[in-house]
Amino acid sequence: MDTALKSLPKVKGRKRRIWTRSQRKTADFYLFVSPWILGFLLLIVVPLIVAILASLTNYDGLSLNTIRWVGFSNYERALTNIDVDVKFSFTRTVMWGLLNLPTWLAISFGMALILNQNLKARGLFRTIYYIPSIVPLVAAMTAWKVMLDKNVGWLNGFLSLFWPGTAIGWLSEHALTGMTIVAVWTGLGTAMVIFLAGLQNIPDELVEAARIDGANGLQIFRFITLPLMTPVIFLQLIMGLIGVFQQLNLPLVLTQVGISRGAVPPRQIYLFMYHVYRQMFVSNRWGYGIALILIMFVVVSILTFIVFWTEKYWVYSDTQGEGD
Amino acid sequence: MSEKVISRRDVLKLSGSLIAGTLLVGCTSEATEESQTSNLLEETDAPVSSADTTPLPPKKPQGKVVVFHDVKEITEPQRAQFESDYPGITIEFVDREEPARLTAMLAAGTPPDLIRVQAPIIPGYLARGIMKDMTPYFAASTLLKIEDLMPANNYYKAESPTRIGTGKIYGMCKDFSPDFTIFVNKKIFEDAGVPVPSTTDSLTYAQVKEYAANIIQRDGERIVTWGYGYGDDWIDRIWMNCLAELGQSLYTDDFSKIQLTSNEEVRKQAQFYFDLAKENLVANPLNPSPSGWTGDDFTAGMLGMMQYGFWFSAMAESDTTRGQIVMIPAPTWAGKRRNPTMTATGMVMAEEAANPDAAWVLFEWYNGGALATERASSGWGVPALKSMLDLIPNESDFQKQCLEILNGELALETPPLQFNPYLGEMDVANSWKTQLEQALGGGLSFDEMLGNIENEVNLTISDNEAVING
Known about the structure:
B: D-Maltodextrin-Binding Protein, domain 2, 14 strands
């Protein structure tokens, strides 16, 4: 047998492949997506698991030597009345969202509608309205403080021309109103640009056809513009909703010298994230603070899910009615 | 040979193993450390018979020193100068504006070698075993001699977290000032037709309030000129100092409770500051400082009296206030003169410092070398070394007047305040501001406000006590 094999001529063939084409394709796929998978694991999944574990401890942010397992007591404290400011700050955040989100969406959408018309110097106005979005937050807030201060602010100074000695606390007793004015002004430009992009994607022929059919401006807006803009409104709503619950900087930068452990925003704008900041950075309750963040994560997820669930009722989609 | 396709499930298994491995390693490390250091405060509470002053052998340190610091306090040219003077040692800054980074470093067991701190946090750091005993370094130093340290450095000496003032040396202040002196804008007094307070006799707090009420200027509901300003971030330190005049403490002997409602004297002090706010004689949550900081209100000429330490003299004179201001001695609450520093900002070395010897070189240079000399000459505080006292600026009339008052205040030799190891620097002040706003707005009575502060602070004390003592 051996002799017979040896006598056969050696065939110069291709090396035998270790992997099949299908395996190579799979390996290539994972090779290409591996940076993202690794990033997702290391930057999202691992921190999330560590955060969940930390929320079950008394971690004080200063020393791991003293860390101890406390089970669900941090969650118990947050969800019962032991820490009354959890409920209070959550309520203030919801109030802030209810006032800020619709105002911001309505005004920025309105501005986009106006600047989508054939106006003179349209580009100039678009630029002007976008400027607030590129001004650094601290500089903008300093300017607003000068305008809204109770005693030396320009607004009260102007009002004092008519009602001498006016001292309205725009950034104290009426801080929610003051902060909403500033937040809408700050966020107007970016939202307006996104709405403008959406408006410019509405096919002209649809509007023309409606005009030919005798539709007036209001009807065109009601039956063409608004439905076609609902995907953009939906996107802005989701982003705005998440932003509302993440808000920390604005109350502190607007009403205090800045973010420091001594800074306390007025109660009207005592938002949830400030309460978390206070627990972690002032009182060294990191375990508890992380538990609060995870509770907020769940709440925001539920709210986002609800908004997504309502999508089918009011958001226009190109695939709607397919197959009918 | 069987060929195995790498499936998504395989990838998930591998990832899961990696995460589990990471977590197991982390948990093991924590568990070991925990078992070694339980009940730290009780262990360290035992008095230290005497500080270990055995000199260290001379070495030539090398390597990187990580410093958690205010980056404005060691500028780039100064850092370059240090690195040129001490070849082989480099500085890496962690900006103190990023406290989360310090937390991450402490959590990872790789703390900065040197950490910028203020006095109130020292008992808490000591209780947690964060600071290294630097006594041997001081004992061996020719630049930072123990006998040359100003008494304000006693904040950095401790026998235990509840016994500050003597014992091992854990660091030192970069400079300090008796923090209760008052700066007076004479023009505002003259405009109001009120005689300027004496620069030699100290006022009482009641007189300060009376002056504030007399010099404040209003236009309808608007306040044009304010009467009095103080650092409300330090409200608990102010109360502690006032109580110390009477030999009392803000806390129970074991620091397990704050006494606000049960101590009549504290109630009086809280009532005093509440009334100041209610009458809008001071900036308060409902009537905030126009510039965000009362120091800026003073330099803008909008504030008659500003209670800040000597350090403020370096910036008190602006174009508006130049030639108009004087510094007067600290007021008294009950007639006994005291004027401690209540911040004593300085530097400590981490117990787990990676490069302690090189860190000491930087520490020595910062606190006793060229940079310390430069700081002392600038007037931004009293030098932390006796040998540098002569460098305090003494040229202009205002500087001379401030120095004269300062010398009188330093002569009081006020011992340090004993801060609570179970509280952070801002716990009481933060709670005070939060509750004060509600009380000023009518949402709470004065008693409810005090009760709420007491409950909040006591909860924090109890949480931190559990963390430290187990």
